[in-house]
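Bumping my old thread because nobody answered last time. Still need a sequence for this structure:
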């Protein structure tokens, strides 16, 4: 008899949750109890619905998937976790452990089915009375595994990540290093990267900034996020403020707010 799994989906992208839900429906025997689009909501949803299995996105604004997983270690019962991640295959294989499984985006249906089979076996064992003398993973072991993943995520911060931007009717993937600046106007985020200008699907600059290196991308104004390595010129302005002239084709000028002026002066020794 097929084991019905009680599942919660956590991903900040609605389309990703819908696609994963569709793939799970094709497999069958899976009851999706609920969804969450950020880490804090995930913790609340999991506490309320008590799923046996959680599909957990790694990169989310606020609490990351790893931070959520660390908190779930202390819950009783603690659900099984399948991370949904953009880590490269070699890194995943290096850290693969028995207690946690991984799926790469975009999710491959065959790989998803394999992960579900593994989850069924583990959850079936959890449901059955523990065999005398059987060894079960302790929370400390699972926490240690998650700590390794946190370390891997931290090391990854320095790597070049990709960002999707819409140009006309197509989406381009650009390296974050190539982004010159992003600006918000009329609830639309415009991104300039290399020779391209497009729009981002992020709803706010806060969400976009959370995906980028905070040492490189500064929120110099509530409506502007800039790559400090792409500043061409700093122009003194009224009241000891500055205008940044960027390294794009138009040499776009971006104002610096009063609160960020001091940070800029300190950093560049102005």
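Sorry it took so long. Here it is:
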């Amino acid at each position: 008899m097929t084991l019905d799994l009680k599942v919660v989906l956590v991903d900040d992208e609605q389309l990703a949750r819908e696609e994963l839900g569709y793939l799970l429906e094709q497999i069958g025997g899976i009851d999706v109890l609920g969804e969450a689009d950020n880490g804090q909501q995930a913790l609340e949803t999991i506490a309320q619905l008590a799923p046996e299995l959680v599909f957990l996105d790694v990169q989310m604004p606020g609490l990351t998937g790893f931070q959520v997983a660390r908190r779930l270690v202390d819950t009783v019962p603690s659900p099984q976790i399948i991370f949904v991640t953009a880590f490269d295959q070699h890194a995943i294989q290096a850290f693969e452990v028995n207690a946690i499984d991984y799926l790469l985006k975009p999710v491959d249906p065959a790989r998803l089915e394999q992960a579900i089979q593994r989850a069924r076996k583990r959850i079936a064992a959890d449901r059955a009375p523990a065999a005398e003398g059987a060894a079960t993973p302790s929370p400390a072991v699972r926490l240690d595994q998650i700590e390794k993943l946190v370390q891997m995520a931290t090391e990854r911060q320095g790597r070049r990540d990709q960002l999707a931007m819409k140009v006309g009717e197509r989406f381009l993937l650009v390296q974050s290093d190539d982004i010159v600046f992003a600006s918000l106007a009329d609830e639309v985020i415009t991104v300039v990267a290399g020779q391209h200008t497009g729009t981002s699907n992020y709803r706010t600059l806060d969400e976009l900034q959370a995906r980028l290196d905070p040492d490189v991308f500064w929120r110099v104004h509530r409506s502007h996020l800039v790559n400090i390595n792409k500043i061409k010129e700093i122009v003194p302005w009224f009241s000891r403020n500055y205008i940044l002239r960027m390294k794009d084709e138009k040499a776009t000028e971006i104002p610096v707010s009063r609160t960020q002026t001091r940070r800029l002066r300190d950093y560049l020794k102005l």
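Residues 93-99, 130-141 have pLDDT under 50 and may be disordered. Let me know if any region looks off to you.
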